[in-house]
Design goal:
The complex is a heterodimer. Chain A has helices spanning 3-17, 26-31, 38-45, 62-75, 127-136, 153-159, 166-169, 203-207, 241-252, 265-275, 293-309, 318-325, 352-369, 404-424, 440-447, 451-461; strands spanning 22-23, 55-57, 79-82, 99-102, 109-113, 118-122, 139-140, 176-182, 188-190, 216-223, 225-226, 230-238, 259-263, 283-291, 313-316, 342-345, 348-351, 373-379, 386-395. By secondary structure, chain A is an alpha+beta fold. Chain A is globular. The two termini of chain A are 25 Å apart. Chain B contains 19 helices and 7 strands. The chains are: A alpha+beta, B alpha/beta.
Chain lengths: 474, 358
């Protein structure tokens, strides 16, 4: 783009959001070029610059967002939406330059509605701030992912995020009532005023998980919950993964714990040993159950009886409480995998009749084809019908190519194999991190001809293809 | 770039970590991605790797208050303040400091302070050197909140404590903030230590100065032989030993924990004990070590609008919890909150709170 046209567009963007909220400074472009995606981090670590936006804009609301999108559509400039930048899939990286739209000025808490039990807030609000707003009134959001403090409401919605108490309270897509969305052409729409209805397809669910490819979520009503009277923890050690699966499936037919996390033997012997202190070999499982005390008493009895039937060793409450206290510690540098290691989380989800097979198939595929990789896994979100695998590969520095191009080649080859193995065995391309650029190429393999539904919606809403190009396989 | 291995280690740990984003008072006020410890570290890491220039990140380095909320939040114990302060020294020594920072440095060199103002004549009568107890009000209080100095000394006098006081009380906090550990910072600190050491006891009003005396001076090898005590602690001792008579009116006060007391000096209780002597503690969200900063006077010189937002955010915490009276522990936060007080709310300094209960 020539200087003259660049400056013209800059002045139009400044007019839309205010000069102080539109930047072409290098520091702003750089900080919006690297998210939590391993490839972007590796690239920067090797002293290379990631693709950067030409303009960084921070609108304060849907109206200003609308103005930005109208400008972008007129000049046919790509628009990449950035919430907290804590995504692991490269979804927020402005691959094609253009406009980077940071949502964090849209962080207003509009209302804490304790009658209908929701908080209405800007989509750029950091989720922890929403939690604080709930706490100040004696409530809780019950959305507690490890990225609670980093990520925004819009970011979680755009990527279908999930928190550690999901088994009882649901995923983010269960936690939203209504949303305000700015369409690529600048129109501002609201989804239905209640999330359950028979008024056609669910508009919420069209935009949740759309990763900024169909529009920009600017406001949301997020559910809040009464704080539980009691929250109890119980740690168990299973001799093998199979008995843990069967026991867990049975529990889910009886009641819903809040936390359910099953760690495979390798992760029990590494992360769990290091952070929680479990020394014994086996598969560690942490269960939390909460709510009204009388009900929790009954749930505890059912839990202990059921797990005893499958040979689980009851480790008491100590490890579970320690895990709860340290649940975010896992993700701080020094506790977490980090460069120069190569690593990735290939989370997938499937019904019970497939999940165990997927686990062993992925484990074998990675360990056989990439013997330099360590495979660890836990199962952290459970339903009456199935569960998800949070499986990770880790390669130590000595086996990570120094050449960034070769490093990318190895990284992508592992992902291709791992995710294709999951899909081939009945799993879904991703459970709760999203698709981004990391998995875009695998979406067609996941959906086959069903992909044309997404492509049709995309073409209709975003005919110029400006919204977050090369993400979600669109 | 000439920075320590310690700083490089912190930079490489923080550059891809967002865990402390939510507690940065500046980031929360601006909503800017660059106002995070991770962005500062990422920028610095790219400078270290030759992928960008020091000048490109210099503004962002000066957008940090050094309040340490990120440091306190880090479960691993990384301290972004360390590399930020080293980077400031590099920025200044390499001549790539932003113009507004150079302007403040020049103002200091010309007038003796970054604000370019003279001490209020109203303090002249308080100047004396008659006691072996020095009241160290500090530059911010002397130049910006002279009433606090007068009230504090009056309070001490009521307790029967005569104090020495002078108008030239520069702990070197401004030099430290603007330039990190430079020759000028050390020179001012050394001279100040010599002055302090002429007294038996030094009562330090501003916790930011107090922290500097106890921590940085020690690290810099500058000895203070006088007994140094924080104002809150000293006041509390006077109340507890009966020298200062107060009454408890049952009013609810909410402490604005100053970061230096709470996070750097590990004291989250003395302020609350003082409140308990004259009323009842009513805490808001984000207190103690997690306290949300409310003001920083030097930054208010070059980013006033942002610092107003910082103060307003703190007021929002108070409003949400119906905390009507905020009690501050240092001049910067007192002024910032005072300037933004919502209708129906009130801000008092510690000495004002005690004075209204005598």
């Amino acid at each position: 783009m020539n200087d003259f046209l660049f400056t013209q567009i800059l002045t139009e963007l400044e007019d839309a959001v205010g000069r102080e909220n539109c930047s072409v400074k290098e520091i702003d472009k750089v900080t919006h070029s690297v998210d939590y995606f391993w490839l972007s981090r590796m690239w920067a670590d090797r002293g290379r610059r990631m693709p950067e936006a030409d303009f960084v804009v921070s609108p304060k609301d849907a109206t200003e967002t609308s103005k930005v999108l109208k400008i972008a559509n007129y000049y046919k400039i790509p628009v990449t939406t950035w919430g907290g930048g804590g995504g692991t899939q490269g979804g927020a990286i402005p691959l094609c330059g253009g406009i980077l739209l940071d949502t964090k000025r849209m962080n207003k808490i509009y209302e804490v509605n304790t009658e209908s039990m929701y908080i209405e807030c800007g989509a750029g609000a950091i989720y922890k701030h929403v939690e604080w707003a709930a706490n100040e009134k004696g409530y809780a959001t019950m959305h507690y992912p490890s990225s609670l403090t980093c990520s925004t409401v819009g970011g979680f919605l755009a990527h279908r995020g999930i928190g550690v108490v999901s088994t009882k309270y649901g995923k983010i897509d269960d936690m939203v009532l209504q949303m305000e969305v700015v369409l690529p052409n600048g129109d501002i729409i609201n989804t239905s005023s209640a999330p359950k209805h028979a008024a056609g397809p669910d508009l919420n669910q069209i935009f949740i998980g759309s990763e900024g490819t169909l529009g920009i979520i600017t406001k949301a009503q997020i559910r809040i919950y009464v704080q539980p009277e009691v929250r109890r923890f119980r740690g168990f050690l299973f001799k093998d993964m199979h008995s843990a699966f069967v026991a867990s499936r049975e529990i889910l037919q009886k009641f819903k714990p809040s936390v359910m996390r099953l760690y495979n033997e390798a992760e029990t012997a590494s992360l769990i040993k290091k952070i929680v202190g479990v020394e014994k070999p086996g598969a560690f499982m942490n269960i939390a159950y909460e709510g009204v005390k009388e009900i929790v008493d009954v749930e505890e009895k059912i839990l202990l009886e059921t797990f005893a039937k499958y040979g689980a060793e009851d480790l008491g409450s100590e490890y579970g409480e320690k895990w709860w206290k340290e649940k975010i510690t896992f993700f701080y540098p020094g506790h977490m995998m980090d460069l120069p290691q190569m690593f990735g989380t290939m989370d997938t989800i499937a019904p019970y009749d497939k999940i165990e097979k997927i686990y062993y198939a992925m484990k074998e595929a990675i360990e056989t084809n990439f013997p330099q990789a360590k495979f660890i896994a836990h199962f952290s979100h459970w339903y009456e019908w199935g569960s998800m695998i949070y499986d990770r590969f880790i390669i130590d520095e000595k086996d990570v190519p120094k050449d960034p191009v070769e490093a990318m080649r190895l990284h992508n080859a592992i992902w291709n194999l791992g995710v294709r193995t999951a899909i081939a065995n009945g799993g879904v391309v991703n459970d709760h991190h999203g698709v981004g650029m990391k998995l875009g190429r695998l979406m067609k393999e996941q959906y086959g001809p069903a992909m044309q539904v997404f492509e049709g919606i995309k073409k209709s809403l975003d005919p110029n293809g400006i919204m977050n190009p090369f993400k979600l396989g669109l | 770039m000439n920075i320590s291995e310690k700083s490089k280690g912190i930079i490489d740990s923080c550059r891809f970590c967002w865990m402390c984003r939510h507690i940065c008072p500046i980031g929360n006020a601006t909503g800017l991605e660059r106002n995070t410890a991770r962005a500062r570290a990422l920028g610095a890491s790219l400078v270290v790797r030759g992928a960008t220039k020091l000048k490109e990140i210099s503004d962002n380095i000066y957008e940090c208050t050094l309040c340490g909320a990120c440091t306190n939040n880090c479960m691993t114990g990384w301290d972004p303040k360390v590399f930020i302060q080293e980077l400031k020294t590099e920025i200044v020594l390499n001549g790539v400091a932003p113009d507004y920072i150079m302007g403040l440095i020049e103002k200091y060199q010309t007038t003796g302070n970054v604000y370019g103002v003279l001490a209020c004549a109203c303090l002249n009568d308080l100047v004396n050197n008659d006691s072996d107890v020095l009241f160290f009000a500090g530059q911010d209080a002397i130049l910006k909140t002279p009433e606090s100095v007068k009230n504090s000394i009056a309070l001490l006098n009521k307790a029967g404590v005569k104090v020495s006081f002078g108008l030239d009380q520069d702990s070197s906090a401004a030099w430290w903030f603007l330039t990190g550990k430079t020759a000028e910072t050390l020179s001012v600190a050394t001279k100040t230590a010599e002055k302090l050491n002429q007294f038996k006891t030094v009562v330090v009003y501003d916790p930011v100065d107090y922290k500097l005396f106890l921590h940085e001076y020690k690290e810099w090898g500058i000895d203070i032989t006088a007994k140094v005590i924080g104002f809150n602690e000293y006041l509390l001792s006077l109340i507890e030993n009966g020298s200062l008579k107060v009454k408890n009116n049952g009013k609810a006060y909410s402490l604005q924990d100053n970061y230096a007391y709470a996070r750097e000096l590990d004291d989250t209780q003395t302020g609350r004990k003082l409140i308990s002597k004259v009323g009842v503690v009513k805490d808001m969200l984000l207190i103690g070590k997690e306290a949300n900063l409310a003001g920083q006077l030097i930054m208010a010189e070059y980013m006033p609008n942002v610092m107003t937002e910082v103060a307003l955010n703190r007021w929002q915490n108070a409003i949400n919890m119906d905390c009507k009276t905020i009690v501050t522990e240092n001049p910067a936060e007192y002024l910032a909150l005072k300037a933004t007080t919502p209708d129906g709310y009130q801000v008092l300094s510690v000495e004002e709170m005690i004075l209204e209960n005598i």
